[in-house]
Amino acid sequence: MNTTTPATPSQAIPPRPALTDINGLRLGGIFPTGREPSVRTLREWTRTRRIPHHRIGHFVYYDLAEVSAHIRTKLLVPARG
After folding, report:
1. Is the CB of residue 63 less than 8 Å from the CB of residue 17?
2. How confident is the model at residue 9 (pLDDT cuts 50, 70, 90)?
3. Category of 77 on φ-ψ map: left (φ > 0), alpha (ψ -120 to 50) or beta
4. What span, in angstroms and rounded, lies between the C-alpha atoms of 80 and 27?
């Protein structure tokens, strides 16, 4: 006899964010076309913790929504002049 009950929505596991690598971040559409930062710049921002990232083993992944929100709110470049 099966005594398990089906999972209710409150018990369901929340969906995980889609993670991408550095090339997916660069070409993911969060930067203006033709003005994407270089891979070297993104690696520097990751190393200095200027953008959010997730390390899984020795791999580094980015959540596009998380990085986009962070850039709009915290990664501001002062105006010249």
Report:
1. yes
2. low
3. beta
4. 27
pLDDT of res. 80: 73
0.90 exceeded by pTM? no
Angle at 69 between CA 66 and CA 70, to 5 degrees: 85
pLDDT at 75: 72
Closest CA to 61 of 16, 31, 29: 16
Residue 55, strand partner residues = 60
Question: And the tokens for 25?
Answer: 């971040």
Phi, psi of 42 (to 5 degrees): -65, -40
Q: Residue 38 and residue 28: Cα distance in Å, rounded?
A: 13
Contact 40, 48 (CB under 8 A): no
